[in-house]
Amino acid sequence: MQRVFTIAALVSLLVTPARSEPCQLHQAAAIDMDIEGSGRLVVPMAISGQPVKLLVDTGGYASMLTDSTVDRLGLQREPIRAGIVRMFGGERIMKSVTAHEILLGGLRATTLNFLVLPDHDISPDTNGSLAPDILRGYDVDFDFANAKLNLFAPTTCSGNLVYWTDAPSAEVPFSIDDSGHIRFDVTLDGATFDATLDTGASDSVLDLEAARHAFHLEDGNPALKNMGEGRYGTSYSYPFRALTFGGIAVNNPNLRLLSRSDTHLGGSTRLLLGIDIIRHLHMYVAYRQKRLVVTAASAH
What we know:
The chain is mostly beta strands. The protein has helices at residues 67-73, 132-135, 208-215, 260-263, 275-278; strands at 3-6, 11-15, 27-32, 34-35, 41-47, 50-56, 64-66, 78-79, 85-86, 92-93, 95-104, 107-117, 128-130, 139-143, 148-152, 170-173, 175-176, 182-188, 191-197, 205-207, 225-230, 233-237, 242-245, 248-251, 256-258, 271-273, 281-286, 291-296. The strands form 4 sheets. Strands 1, 2, 17, 18, 19, 20, 21, 22, 23, 24, 25 and 26 form a 12-stranded mixed beta sheet that branches.
């Protein structure tokens, strides 16, 4: 029988039996995380000896540097070979740069490619993003309680990945799409949606058209609240009761309902699980094994 443990007023954990054999993990880096005003995560990197701050974005397509950062570093812009990349909201990215002498938490790279991001697409104190093109080369551990992003050598161990506590844990199997995004099914008030784990999203988002279809939401429904116009068009709210995935239950989730014509959500994704929910968890992402293991953020 599964037991339910409350993580926060928002999130509960439906605990699965712990794996008996702990994995021997090999840490590659421990990186300090700063928290933006929106709650999103920023980590330091150095490029050619110059400091930059990058948003940790599991929902990104490729790592990016802002236009002003590219100018400051004196990097040469080149057209993207693949053509055009579209971001959430439809912003088109058409240029890339090659950076040299990269340092991330003690890890070094001679060269890395970055897409060029318009300055208005990110907080003015942030210089770009760290996306799955880099992250998926490691097991990635999000330790919110200690403000650490821990990178581990990818493990092949099928045992217990929860190295930080003996507290209750849950595991979510996932798939990885062509963009490197972590995807799994979630259940929202009895309806199933394809979700993407997106640490770069400050809010969790549900596709408006999918919600209308699943819950028969008409414009005259008094519970469907128009929250006004924003950067991604008109947003709505609705009093959902519970969102569950794997062994995790999110009570009364606050989801922004946005039209697909405004968000340009790709593929079959209909829900973005953003940092507003993720920050209540301690997450270990084993990309190669496609395992997401979680505890309460405070469990140590």
